[in-house]
Amino acid sequence: MAKVAVVLGDLFNEDEYMKPKQALEDAGHELSVIGIEAGKELKGENGKTTEKPQFGIADVNPHDYDALFIPGGGSPDRLRADERMVSFTKDFLKHEKPVFAICHGPQLLITADGVKGRKMTSWKTIQVDLKNAGADVVDQEVIVDGNYVTSRQPADIPAFIEKSLEKLQ
Amino acid sequence: MAKVAVVLGDLFNEDEYMKPKQALEDAGHELSVIGIEAGKELKGENGKTTEKPQFGIADVNPHDYDALFIPGGGSPDRLRADERMVSFTKDFLKHEKPVFAICHGPQLLITADGVKGRKMTSWKTIQVDLKNAGADVVDQEVIVDGNYVTSRQPADIPAFIEKSLEKLQ
């Protein structure tokens, strides 16, 4: 069973966070929710729920985790403003650990310099930024390329979960 | 006096919208607030205010305006998801009319294919996307390049207003 780091910031998309998290936990994996600050309440972008991260970015070591999950919404753009979050992300890329990013999640991968030459998808507005950063962008519900699993939007969650679980087998 | 189009979407930054709008109106210019739909309530990203756009994007013609103002926050990423907003924006670029964009505002200019070779600034997380799109990015409170005036964040509003007003003289 894998230890999965979930990075979460304000205005996260509720479904893109909770549904994959629940599915991965149901499969027996251990998920740790990491924010800028431990315990600081974060709002969902649709006002449906809030979350308090278990850990702050200053308290975690990427070497303790087997995979990285980046939910979408307004969260990834807030996370990529923090250099420690970008550095944490880079460590997963360097060691080619599984990375699951949905919707705006790939924004964090752009800032971590991790998309050039990678086949990926994302929320439609971010696709131009991925292309400009050198990714091979495909408008499809889920794209698997090596250690990356990417999806576009809430409707893609079932396919995103299926392919993410396969990477943890 | 100039007719200025303001494009506004959900989760706009309140100060970046209201302060320049007030200053431009105080100087005698006429501002029209344009959303995806006329009259549909939009939330400010800090919960400080809401706004109902006077016009919907289907009801306006860019030829009726002398300049374009793009406030920041979550708004520009929502606007660039709508092809009519992107097309509206492109018309201002084609005719080299003044464009004022602050914070996340340049995201709309990226999607409108309007940043390559331009000297610009933006909110810090967007600077990587601007660079990847071919802009010459400078981390400074305001950058004027031809018809473009760009700024980074709420603290830059006074400089942003000053340079925007100069473009309308």
Can you characterise this structure?
Two copies of one chain form a homodimer. The first copy, chain A, is of the alpha/beta class and 169 residues long. Chain A has six helices and eleven strands. Chain A has a seven-stranded mixed β-sheet with strand order 5-2-1-6-7-11-10, sandwiched between helices. In chain A, helix 1 crosses helix 6. The mean pLDDT of chain A is 98. At the A-B interface, helix 4 and helix 5 of A face helix 4 and helix 5 of B.
Report the radius of gyration of chain A as a whole number of Å. 14 Å
How many distinct beta strands of chain A? 11
Order of helices and strands of chain A: EHEEEEEHHEHEHEEEH
| Class of secondary structure makeup of chain A | alpha/beta
Number of helices, where a helix is a run of at least 4 consecutive DSSP H or I residues of chain A: 6
CATH architecture descriptor name of chain A: 3-Layer(aba) Sandwich
Residue fraction in strands of chain A: 15-25%
The level of helicity of chain A is 25-40%
Unreliable stretches covering 5 or more consecutive residues of chain A: none
Indicate the mean pLDDT of chain A: 98
Number of domains of chain A: 1
Strand order of the main beta sheet of chain A, please?
5-2-1-6-7-11-10
Query: Which two chains form the greatest contact, residue counts included?
Result: A-B, 16 and 16 residues
Q: CATH superfamily of chain A, please?
A: Class I glutamine amidotransferase (GATase) domain
